[in-house]
Amino acid sequence: MQFNGTDSYVAGDDLKVAVNAAVTLERPLLVKGEPGTGKTELARQVAAALGLRMIEWNIKSTTKAQQGLYEYDAVSRLRDSQLGDERVHDVKNYIKKGKLWQAFEADEKVVLLIDEVDKADIEFPNDLLQELDRMEFHVYETGETIRATNRPIVIITSNNEKELPDAFLRRCFFHYIRFPDADTLRQIISVHHPDIKADLLSTALTRFFEVRETPGLKKKPSTSEVLDWLKLLLAEDLSAEDLRKDSGNALPKLHGALLKNEQDVHLFERLAFMARRQR
Hints:
- The protein has 13 helices and nine strands.
- The protein has helices at residues 13-25, 39-50, 65-69, 74-83, 99-105, 123-127, 129-134, 166-170, 182-192, 198-212, 223-235, 240-245, 262-278; strands at residues 29-33, 53-58, 70-72, 95-97, 110-115, 136-139, 144-147, 153-158, 173-177.
């Protein structure tokens, strides 16, 4: 099974190598990178390119590793026993299968996305070591062992919010999605906005990189944000000349698509004020 990108997702050679290496080694692919660089979308595109179903597990700060395996609803069973419900005699009626269980028991090979693993508690990755390594786990309530019928392609994303344990990293194939250079960014934009005029694109990208490379920026605008910004420019029917006229202002037009916190907006406002004083 070879991943070579798709018509709607521009994947660099290094990313293709990483995906195919993880598939060959049958190890989870750990993908890091700035928010908005297409980590989650990668899993969807790998599934689409290989013709596989995708199972998505979105991690939150309260997520526990056990939830990925299964959850036993003892409270419901106790309530049903008090009501004399016949279901109470089969413990399986009170076990909810998690995303790993669903992936393991699938009749076909699937792509399992564990999205934003760094949001959870630091122990979360360690708690999944054995299950991801052996592709099996034990259900204590029923005494059965769930083994992967077809080993899933596991893609794990991280925004680098916290360090992941060494033991977990050792079991993964790692890839960092760098922010694309100007040429690659043009390719990505051409997929999403194929009809954008060359003059507008060139001027907008110059303005975008000026914003992104401003010293002191708390959150640099990402790939997804430049796509949103261009969509707004097109919706407002702005031209390259409109952006050039705006070049004297520190804040670009429709900057809310690029700057996502008040500190960065204030930074550009201060830069504009300093620029006016120097004139």
